Amino acid sequence: MSADLSPRILKGQKSVFRVQLRSQDAGDASQAVYHSRRAHRKSRGGCQKCKIRRVKCDETKPACVRCQKHGVDCTYAPIPRTAPNIPHPDRTAYSLSLTDIASKLDSLLELPQTRGHHQQHHHLHALHHFHSATASTISDKNSFDLMRTRMTHLAFTSPTVMHAVLATSLSHLLHLTPTTSPTRTTYTILESTHWQRSISQYSRELSHGATAQNMDALFSTCLLLTSHTFMLPPSPSNPNPDPKTTSFIYTIDTNPQALNWLTMQSGLRHLLTLAKPYLPQSIWFQTFMSTRSANAFFEDHRPGPVDLHPGLAALCNIVSEDDTESNNPYVWPLRMLTPLLALERSPRSFHHYCNFMGRLMPEFYERLRKRCVPALVVLAWWMALMLAAAGEVWWLGPRLRAELLAVCMFLEGTTDERVRRLLGFPARACGYRLKWEGEGEIDDGDEGGLGVDGDGDGGTGG
């Protein structure tokens, strides 16, 4: 969530310094009139760019207003571990504070008081890790500050949210913990426990409907669950599992839940519908509104192939104005996907890409379950964009790479030249070498001038 700039930033105002005002007849200098200097606060913790330019920084994080206005990266100098002339906090008071937090956690989560200080330490560590590290990996610029502040405060009154916060943090800690560490066993047990309790309580709360009182807990838990469901289950013994054992393409026949990592992403859309009368009262309201305004091109519901990627439209049999969302399940996904192809291939576009998966319709999911070729190709193109923007993110990268590899493996036996051409972009994104590559049958995937070769400079084609 973008920082609240309004009451503390005097945007557009200049500092008022003490200046001498002379009368028009230039009288005695001793009669000069002075205006006192306006009270102000020096910017000692400003960002690096403002310091270089010697201008006042409002110190908004993660990016100050000046840097946002000029479209430059905003960085702050690291905070030193110790600061001179600043007394260290009293260790007794600090210990009492941690004890108080631990006690609140025990009471909120109804955990047994006899479980010992060892597990208590892990919960405190997980809570701190979420605030200092995990939140930045599961949020965008619109929701980052909100997750670390108001959502964390909400967690101390909502067991559902607190379980989800701790579970998400523990999942992240497991990702970072070496396979040989004895701590992994503890983290695994705690992670499983907290996810189970959070999901159980979330389902029970949702069964009673969304109200003004519970909607923020439901929104917060739903957002945290998206990372959990999308995450590919870790396998310490096999960090590079075979896509044929993990992808829905090869497992959907025996595991009906194999596509849940994608279908669950639409949960927030249903919640928003349920809580619509109370939305302006939600702590998430401004975030939801800013996300919607930033993705206005997702409101394009025109029929037919106009302004769609020509190669994908042909593969999906979108050939005339008679092809609409009601009779062709690929019209809406392509309407969302096509403008994404023209965006910069970087983390800057990540929040735009993410909104795609939350707006897919059941008809498209059904085509994926049946492994229809057009559906697989459309999904592969979106995953290729996501991988370019967030391939190193711990809960996204492994899933995206495994599913992309599975699509390439599943479809590379096709003799349809349209599919062969369109597979080039996804294959390059995940590093898969198609067996016909080099035979002259694969193009660069840049049909219609959409810039899909990774440079992000193309515009939407006709």
TrEMBL record:
TM region positions: 373-396
One Pfam family, short name: Zn_clus
MF GO annotations: DNA binding; DNA-binding transcription activator activity, RNA polymerase II-specific; zinc ion binding
InterPro entries noted in UniProt: Sterol_Uptake_Regulator, Zn2-C6_fun-type_DNA-bd_sf, Zn2Cys6_DnaBD
Keyword entries, A-Z: DNA-binding, Membrane, Nucleus, Transcription, Transcription regulation, Transmembrane, Transmembrane helix
Location of region: Disordered: 443-462
Stretches with biased composition (Gly residues): 448-462
Residue span, Zn(2)-C6 fungal-type domain: 46-76
Protein name, UniProt field: Zn(2)-C6 fungal-type domain-containing protein
Organism whose genome encodes this protein: Aspergillus taichungensis
